[in-house]
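ARCHIVE CARD
SHELF: 3
SLOT: left
DATA:
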Amino acid sequence: LQLAQIEVFKQGFNQKLEEGQKKLHQMWLDWSRKFSKDSGEESSAGPEEMESLALLMAHSVTQQLQITCCKIVSAIEGLPSSLQDNVKQSLKIMEELHASFSVAKSFQDLSSSVLTQSHRNLAVIQEYMEGLLDYLENNIPLSWLVGPFFRLGEEE
């Protein structure tokens, strides 16, 4: 039962990750088809339109990551505070990153330091999520084993 619950959590997490990767891949394919022909020649779309689509894709990806982090924060109540803090920090990072891409009208609106820091922050988030999964693999939360406790006479 314990391992089954962890496996369900991991499968759900992996499924969401896979769905996000497929969506991102499809967006990339659509974007690539729009701006290049089979011969490798660039289409008539200008750099401004390509830049706009790339920013739109970044905005969409950061929004999905923000939603996922928010769901994870609510799902890990009762776990060690260090894990909760890491996930809350991940959510904060995603909110900031999403805000940066939301207001940007062009890549020039994003400084190189923002882009570099974003890359580092995404690596930190990945590390935090891997730590969370490692913890869940080795330490099953008690509430997952026995469920919620109610005093006699209380109804759900």
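SLOT: right
DATA:
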Amino acid sequence: MSSPVLLCVFRGIDAYEALGAALQGLTQGRGKPSTSLPQAVMALTPEVTFRQAILFFTEADFVTGKACFYCLCLGESWRCRAESLFTYLQAGAQVLCTVLLIKPGVWSQNLPRILQNLHLEKFTMVGMKHINLEPASALRLLPSEVEQDPAALGAHCTYLTSGTALVLCLQRPNAVKKLMDLLGPEDPKLAQALDPCLWRAQYGTSTVHNGFYGSKSYAMSVRDVKLFFPEGLCCAECQALEEEEV
């Protein structure tokens, strides 16, 4: 080769789709191909990624920011755990937990169908309880934009505290994003326009009566597990929850 090449390894949610879209955007400026950008070739599957990675990187190279090292902090030695991305590629997707709250009036009429759909989507239920939400707990479940509208805030809190909700702790690889993809947008009308099979499109009637609450991020899922299941879960906790001391 007459010129050097740059090898990069990226890690992220939907990495292949996201990187492919980014590369397409870089090589096509406003519909016109760009000749000033370098050519890029990316791996298209996890198997190809692993095979190509071991050609160019060693185990020592292929480590995340939590590298193994010693440091002095307030006179004490601390050792951080090394996390090799080779190990993640070999092990596959990490099993995570997320929380699904089925709002009052929805679960009592549709629970068998909802549980069947969760089973079809490869979720494992590791916690379940009926709960009558207190206003303070209801507020923690609302989107931040709702807090700016007193009328909407009151309507959401009134509904969430109007009856018994069913809270499920669910487990599977990529659980948080998978659940969000199934639920769809907060507004059932928007969900209906995007895909009638989305759960909020099927069970919701308005942004208040939209059927479900789901943890929107991994950090929120950890918070929600601690909030609704402080006594623990009904199975061996996954590694992620052990690290968060849930």
